[in-house]
Design brief:
200 residues; 61% helix
């Protein structure tokens, strides 16, 4: 199903260690609008989509979001690599050090662990695709906030790339939504009380 290439989707570089930046960026690893939530949401929702195009888009984007989670992990690792406990304390991130040392864990910026409640799947293709479009907009906004808070041009370059991909994903989901609405507008697919007939 997937071909895994042992390189990041785009190289990740940092100018210097920066634990305060890492503490903010970790939200895109395990926060409510982060890459883990996106990948699991899309790879799960694809099963209840009525068109091949929508299934394909969710599979492709869900897989790419896994690659983005990998990029965020690499970025946080490089920003924290070799930092002593004192640096974590100074950054206000001592909880990370105490519980995980330099290990990565899916949390938001406040240290709240990732939760499945971040993922929506109602089984209604229009509802779910609209949820996905909103998720991409929330991720785009989060990346904009992160970019505004950074001063390392290398970090900004990585975040800007990820921001651009959120914009593209939003557009692809919009196209998929159009195909779903066209499919559902056909008389044999229209909601009829408790019985919704689907063609294969």
């Amino acid at each position: 199903m997937w071909i895994y290439e042992k390189t990041l989707e785009r190289p990740v570089r940092v100018s210097r260690p920066d634990l305060k930046a890492a503490k903010m960026i970790i939200s895109q690893y395990g926060g409510p609008d982060g890459e883990l939530s996106a990948s699991l949401r899309y790879l799960n929702q694809r099963y209840s989509m009525p068109t091949d195009m929508a299934k394909s888009v969710l599979t492709d984007i869900g897989t790419e979001e896994l690659a983005h989670m990998e990029m965020i992990a690499a970025l946080v690792h490089k920003l924290t690599d070799g930092a002593p406990p004192e640096a974590f304390i100074e950054a206000g991130w001592e909880g990370q050090w105490v519980q995980h040392d330099h290990g990565l864990f899916w949390t938001d910026v406040n240290g709240v662990p990732w939760s499945a409640k971040y993922i929506a799947c109602l089984g209604d293709p229009i509802t779910d695709m609209m949820e996905n479009m909103a998720a991409e907009q929330k991720a785009r906004t989060t990346y904009e906030h992160l970019i505004a808070a950074m001063d390392d041009p290398c970090v900004i370059d990585t975040l800007r790339f990820l921001w651009e991909r959120e914009v593209v994903h939003f557009q692809r989901f919009g196209e998929a939504l159009n195909t779903i609405q066209e499919w559902m507008s056909k008389s044999k697919h229209v909601w009829c009380g408790c019985d919704m007939k689907k063609s294969k």
